[in-house]
Specification:
The complex is a heterodimer of chains A (426) and B (284). Chain A has 426 residues and is α/β, with parallel strands linked by helices. Chain A contains 19 helices and 16 strands. In chain A, helix 17 crosses helix 18. Classes of the chains: A alpha/beta (426), B mainly alpha (284). The structure holds adenosine-5'-triphosphate and magnesium ion.
Chain lengths: 426, 284
C-alpha cells in the first residue's frame, strides 16, 4: 500500500572547510564533540537514514541544534550533503547538476518557512504566484491557480494586501498557499507553525490536516513540539545530536520509546493514567437505529463523509457498526431492515476507564472505539489520533472537541481501509 | 633616527601618473574634449528652455515624490535662485551634479551587487572604498587635472570617484542584509541566480540602495562645488571668486543657492526612496 517517495541513506553533513577529516574521524567512530575539538568541524548530522511514504506526514523531532533543519534542507539541497544518498522519486538528487537541481526544486518540492519568509515588496497574490513565476508560467495561468489556493487556505479577498498588513497566522497561510500553488508532490515544512501563538497554531495544524485530506501530499514536517508531532505525524523521527534515535508511528513512539531521550520527550503522555475515556471521547454523531435500512445508512454516511456508522437501538444501546461495504451488500441483497444483517463490532470501553488501558486496543483497531455508560448506552466515540493528542497536551483545559475533530482519520484513507470509522472535517 | 631615508611615496605616485599620462594622455585628451563639448551643448540647450518651465518640472517631480508642500518649497527656492541672477551657474552645477551622480550610480550599483554576492570581491573592495572616502576630497582634483587638464571633465571624474562609494556600499549592504530565509525562498523554488537577484535580492534591498543613491547625490553636489577649483564653473566658481576676493555678500548668495539645490535634491530623493519602501507604502 505504501510507496516510498523519499529514501535517505547514510546522510552526513559536516559544516566547515575540508570535511574529509571529519568523515574519516566519523568512520573511526569518534564523537561529534571529539571531532569539533580535534578538527574544528561541526558535524550537523551523522549517518541518517529513513524513508518517507507517498502521502504521509513524516515528522522530524528533536531539540534545538539536533540537526532537524539540516536534514530538511538536504532534501532540496539548500544545504549540500557531505555524504550519503537521497533518492526522491527514483532519482539520486545528490548527483543532480545545477540546472537539473533547479528543475527538481521547481517541480518536486515546495517549502514553508518558520518565519513565513514572504517577500515584503509583493502582495499576497504576487507572493503566492512566486513559484510559478520562476517556472515561467504565464501570468494569467499562475494567477488563476494562486487565487484557487488562496481560497483553499481561507484568504479569499486578501489578494492585494501586503504581508505587513497580515497577522502571523495569515502570513503563514500565504506561505502555505505559495507552497501549494507550486503543485509539488513534496512539502518541506521547517517549524512552520512554531512562530505562531498556541491557538492559531492549533488552528493551522487542523487546517493542514484537512488540506492534507484533499491534496494528499507527502509532507516532511519539522517540529520540536511533541504535541504537534503526535497530532500531525503518521510517523515520527527523533533526532538527537545529529543522529537518528527512533522512527515510528506515534503509538510506537509513545508506548515503546527507544531510549531515555525519547522517553523524556514522551513523558508528558503519562497523563494517560488519569485521563479517562470520557475525557477524550467525542460526540457520537451521526447515529442510526435498528429500524433504519441500509439506504438510510448509506445516505447518512455520504452526508457526513464517513465510511461506517454506529447502530443503536431505541434505548440508545450499542448494537454494532455498519460499514459502507456491508450496507451496499445488504441493499443489493434487497434487505431493508438492519435487524436482518450482521453488524460489525469494534472495541468498546466504559466511560470511567483510564485511557491508558485502552491505548493498545485503539492503536490496533480499524474501527473507532465506542464509549458506553453503565447501561451500555453509547455516549461517545474515540478515534485513534484523539487519544494521543489529548494525552500529549500539557494544558489540561484544552478543548477536546476541537482536537479530536482534527485528529479524525482522513476519509480517503478510511475508505481505503474499508471499515474505519470517523468523521470528516469540514 | 635621521639616518632612515624618507620613503619616496610622492615620487612613486608622480612616476605612475607620468607613465599613465604618456601612454594614455592622448586618448584621454580627445575623450575629454568630446565629453566636455557634450556638456556645453547640454547646458546651452537647457538655458534656452524658459526658466519657469524648469521650475515647473521640478515642482511637478516634487509633488509626485512627496506632495504639494515640497512642490511649493521648490518653486519658492528655485525662483529665489533665478531672482538672485544665478540661473546660468545653477544650470551648470545641476548638469554636472546629475551627470556625476548618474555615472556614479551606473558604475556603483553593479559593483555593489557583485560585492554583495561575492565575499571575495567584498573583501577586496572594502579597503579601497575606505581609502576613497577618507582621502581629502580635493586630492582627487590633482590627478583629474593631470589626465584631463582643466575643465568640466576632470570635475566629473573627481566627483564620480568621490561620490561613488556610498552607492557601492549601500548596494552591497542592502544585498547582504536580505534575510537568509528570503534568499532560501528564491533557491527553494528553483530560481536561477538572475531571478534570485531581480525578484528577491534587489527589490528587498531597494530601500537601502535608494539611501545610498541619495548620499551619492549629496556628495556629488558638494564635490561639484569644490571642483570649481579646476574649472568646473557653476555655482562653485562664484563661491571661489567670493572667497578669493573676500566678497562676503556674494559668497553668501552663491552659498544659499547651493543649499537650496541640496535641500531640493535631498527631499526629492527621499520621497522617491520612500515610495519604494513597502511598509510605508502599504498604509497609504
Ligand atoms: N551553516 C552552519 N555552519 C556551521 N554549523 C552549522 C550551520 N548550520 C547548522 N550548524 C550546526 O549544525 C547543528 C544542527 O543545526 P540545525 O540548524 O540543523 O538544528 P535544528 O535541529 O534545526 O535546531 P533548531 O531547533 O534550533 O532550529 C547545530 O549544531 C548547528 O550549530
Ligand atoms: Mg531549525
Amino acid at each position: 500500500m505504501s510507496e516510498e517517495i523519499i529514501e535517505v541513506q547514510g546522510l552526513i553533513k559536516v559544516f566547515g572547510a575540508n570535511p574529509d577529516k571529519a568523515l574519516r574521524a566519523l568512520a573511526k567512530g569518534k564523537s561529534k564533540a571529539e571531532i569539533l575539538k580535534e578538527t574544528g568541524l561541526t558535524v550537523g548530522i551523522n549517518n541518517i537514514g529513513f524513508t518517507v511514504n507517498k502521502g504521509e506526514i513524516f515528522v522530524v523531532m528533536g531539540l534545538s541544534g539536533s540537526g532537524k533543519s539540516t536534514v530538511l534542507r538536504c532534501l532540496n539541497r539548500l544545504i549540500e550533503p557531505t555524504a550519503g544518498t537521497i533518492i526522491i522519486d527514483g532519482t539520486d538528487i545528490t548527483q543532480l547538476k545545477e540546472k537539473e537541481l533547479r528543475k527538481f526544486r521547481q517541480e518536486k518540492t515546495a517549502m514553508v518557512f518558520q518565519q513565513f519568509a514572504l517577500l515584503p515588496h509583493r502582495t499576497v497574490l504576487q507572493n503566492t504566484v512566486f513559484g510559478l513565476e520562476i517556472q515561467g508560467i504565464s501570468k494569467k495561468e499562475r494567477e488563476e491557480k494562486a487565487i484557487k489556493t488562496l481560497e483553499l487556505v481561507g484568504l479569499k479577498g486578501w489578494e492585494d494586501k501586503y504581508p505587513s498588513q497580515l497577522s502571523g497566522g495569515m502570513k503563514q497561510r500565504v506561505g502555505l498557499a505559495r507552497a501549494l500553488t507550486n503543485d509539488a508532490e513534496i512539502l518541506l515544512m521547517d517549524e512552520a507553525f512554531s512562530a505562531l501563538d498556541p491557538l492559531i497554531r492549533e488552528e493551522m495544524q487542523d487546517e493542514l490536516l484537512s488540506l492534507q485530506q484533499k491534496m494528499n501530499k507527502t509532507i516532511v514536517f519539522i517540529t520540536h513540539d511533541l504535541n504537534e508531532a503526535l497530532k500531525l505525524g503518521d510517523r515520527i523521527a527523533f533526532l538527537r545530536d545529529g543522529e537518528l534515535v527512533q522512527v515510528g508511528t506515534p503509538e510506537e513512539i509513545t508506548t515503546h520509546p527507544a531510549d531515555d531521550y525519547v522517553a523524556k520527550f514522551v513523558r508528558g503522555v503519562d497523563k494517560s493514567k488519569i485521563l479517562t475515556a470520557g475525557d477524550v471521547m467525542k460526540k457520537p454523531q451521526p447515529l442510526i437505529t435498528l429500524r433504519d435500512g441500509p439506504n438510510v445508512a448509506l445516505r447518512i454516511m455520504k452526508q457526513h463523509g464517513i465510511s461506517s456508522v454506529f447502530v443503536v437501538n431505541r434505548e440508545r444501546q450499542l448494537q454494532g457498526i455498519i460499514t459502507v461495504d456491508a450496507a451496499v451488500e445488504a441493499r443489493n441483497a434487497g434487505i431493508t431492515n438492519l435487524n436482518d444483517i450482521e453488524l460489525a463490532h469494534g472495541p468498546k470501553i466504559k466511560e470511567d476507564v483510564p485511557v491508558q488501558e485502552a491505548l493498545g486496543v485503539i492503536a490496533e483497531s480499524k474501527l473507532p472505539m465506542a464509549v458506553v455508560d453503565e447501561e451500555d448506552k453509547l455516549i461517545g466515540i474515540i478515534v485513534r489520533g484523539s487519544v494521543l493528542a489529548a494525552l500529549a497536551s500539557i494544558n489540561h483545559s484544552f478543548d477536546v472537541q476541537d482536537t479530536e475533530e482534527a485528529m479524525a482519520p482522513p476519509v480517503s484513507v478510511a475508505a481505503q481501509a474499508g471499515s474505519q470509522g470517523g468523521e470528516s472535517n469540514e | 633616527m635621521n639616518s632612515i631615508p624618507k620613503f619616496p611615496l610622492a615620487q612613486i605616485i608622480d612616476q605612475i601618473v607620468a607613465w599613465l599620462k604618456s601612454n594614455f594622455g592622448q586618448a584621454l585628451h580627445s575623450f575629454s574634449r568630446g565629453f566636455s563639448e557634450g556638456i556645453e551643448t547640454l547646458a546651452e540647450r537647457l538655458l534656452m528652455v524658459p526658466w519657469w518651465v524648469i521650475i515647473l518640472i521640478f515642482a511637478f517631480l516634487a509633488w509626485r515624490a512627496k506632495g504639494w508642500r515640497l512642490a511649493i518649497g521648490t518653486i519658492i527656492g528655485l525662483y529665489f535662485i533665478y531672482n538672485l541672477k544665478l540661473w546660468a551657474p545653477f544650470i551648470d552645477t545641476l548638469i554636472l551634479v546629475i551627470i556625476s551622480a548618474v555615472v556614479s550610480i551606473v558604475f556603483g550599483v553593479p559593483l555593489g551587487i557583485i560585492a554583495g554576492r561575492s565575499r571575495g570581491f567584498h573583501t577586496i573592495l572594502t579597503p579601497i572604498l575606505d581609502f576613497m572616502q577618507t582621502m581629502p576630497s580635493f586630492v582627487y582634483l590633482i590627478p583629474a587635472l593631470l589626465f584631463f587638464s582643466i575643465g568640466k571633465v576632470p570635475a566629473v571624474f573627481a566627483t564620480v570617484i568621490f561620490a561613488m562609494p556610498p552607492a557601492i556600499r549601500f548596494t552591497d549592504l542592502g544585498i547582504r542584509q536580505v534575510p537568509v530565509d528570503l534568499v532560501e525562498v528564491g533557491e527553494a523554488f528553483g530560481s536561477t541566480p538572475g531571478q534570485l537577484l531581480f525578484k528577491v535580492q534587489l527589490p528587498v534591498a531597494l530601500p537601502t540602495i535608494m539611501a545610498g543613491i541619495n548620499q551619492t547625490m549629496m556628495l556629488s553636489l558638494s564635490m561639484v562645488v569644490i571642483a570649481a577649483m579646476i574649472g568646473a564653473g557653476g555655482l562653485g566658481a562664484g563661491v571661489l571668486e567670493a572667497i578669493s576676493q573676500l566678497k562676503i555678500g556674494m559668497g553668501f548668495e552663491y552659498g544659499v543657492a547651493v543649499v537650496i539645490l541640496a535641500i531640493i535634491l535631498d527631499r526629492l530623493f527621499q520621497g522617491i526612496g520612500r515610495s519604494f519602501r513597502t511598509d510605508d507604502n502599504n498604509n497609504i
